[in-house]
Amino acid sequence: MKPIRIVLWSLSLSLVLWACASGAETATPPVVPTEALIPAVIKTEVHASDECAACHTDKQRLIDTAKPEEVVETESSGAG
Amino acid sequence: MAPLEPWEKVLVLGEDFYATVHGQIACMYCHSGINSADKDTAHTGLILDPGSASSQVCESCHHEAAMSSQSLHGTLQGYWTAIEGRGGSRPQHDAQRVETLLATYDTHCGNCHTSCEECHYSPPNSEEILVKQDVVDTLRAKVDHVAEINAMIASPEQHATQTMFNNHCSSCHASCGDCHISQPSSVGGGFVSGHVITKTPSMSQNCTACHGSRVGNEYLGKHEEIPGDAHFRLERMNCIACHTGTEMHDSNASCTECHTLEEDVEKIHELNRYAGAQTPSCESCHPEVGAWNDTNENHTTHFGKLACQVCHSVSYTSCDGCHVAISEKSGLPFYQTEGDYLTFFIGKNPSPNYHRPYEYVVLRHVPAAVDSYSYYGDNLLPSFASLPTWVYATPHNVQKETPQNESCNACHGNAKIFLTAEKVKPEEVDANLNVIVDQIPDPVEEP
Description:
The structure holds 2 protein chains of 2 kinds.
Chain A: H1 2-27, H2 40-48, H3 51-56, H4 59-65
Chain B: H1 6-9, H2 14-18, H3 27-31, H4 39-42, H5 72-75, H6 77-85, H7 97-105, E1 120-121, E2 130-131, H8 133-142, H9 145-153, H10 156-167, H11 176-180, H12 203-210, H13 212-220, H14 230-233, H15 245-249, H16 253-256, H17 262-268, H18 297-302, H19 308-312, E3 316-326, E4 333-343, E5 345-348, E6 360-365, E7 390-393
Antiparallel strand pairs in B: 1-2, 3-4, 5-6, 6-7
Helix pairs in contact in B: 12-13
């Protein structure tokens, strides 16, 4: 009888400990970086068909299409 | 700062930008426009600066950090505080608005609206009154009614002052993007980090790009033989080490933290920046100064009587006679100052208060002149002398050791460093009576 008692006590104790441990685990919210919340599919799709991004990330295209800036000599003088 | 090439100003560094949260938002969400490969089509309806007050795109997500209506960077209230302090005024401050409207009716509406019959008619055998639509359309096309109304609600002086402000002062306005994405337009614009939206503005490309001629040059030590501020030289502290985001986004935040009554909050708008709490104060990092256990006798003797800069600043920039106008050649607004020079003068605190009880502060000459706005009208600053031209200043070139703190008598009895009447231009004496030092402190026996 004695070994059976020991086994039963051990099982009960394990059950109690397991219950407590699993409860504590679910109470802790997972730490997810903000960026990871945005699915990778959306990330790539946002700019895939975006003509704005296509041009503004292309240095040569910007050089080719940029309007030369009119240099207006300022008449301001002195500390502003 | 070297100017950026036109293409460089708008080059998005895709790899860096797309790795950020903002890089995962489609361009058109913030900038509108049309998704097209053709440049002109793509730029139709484009919002260049979504962070400007009129667009308020940033605020749609950043409710808490958005620049409030109390941010001086947005409102430029500082200009109006100075202009109104010298008797200038703007349209919405016209207390006699109704009288002004009636007085100006004849010179505005009355020019076109001469008789009812000009625009209305009654068909034969009818009492109905109809509109001659073609006549109305023709007349309406000739007049900018919004401009007319704006002119009517203001006196000519107010209208002129507002026009001056719009042409000159308002160019210093800063939007969210001017601090967090691009260099300010006043220095040519262009992305600072390839459109990566940075939480912390760049000291050189954002803060001192605007605040350069005084704060920037002094803090960074750009004046020959005058060292930069100790906080920069020794600790490499940048602007935000002292000037927090809260201060940038809500200039009244430090006031309204304690002054919560509605009538107090209203008064805050009328005060200048030296009326309230010092945020930051020197003591917030140096709490030992002037404390009961401070072993520095200079501190304990002078604490509360002298602003810290009186002992710890060195020469800083003063300016004279700024005048604004519109160029006949280019049609663009410009300013000219008569001169700038380095000074160090101790003067009386013009308005001692609970937060700044000092008897002495350092004074900087500001470029205001009685005829600064004369291009726009006569006598636009009718009570010019109500404010001093030597103003309370907090130069950003703090040093532990300075010429005036070498010994007691380097300051006491040293007339050279006090603003006395003979150092003030005769025409400005009246304006500066409350800051001029009549009697400089007597020499003392050195310990």
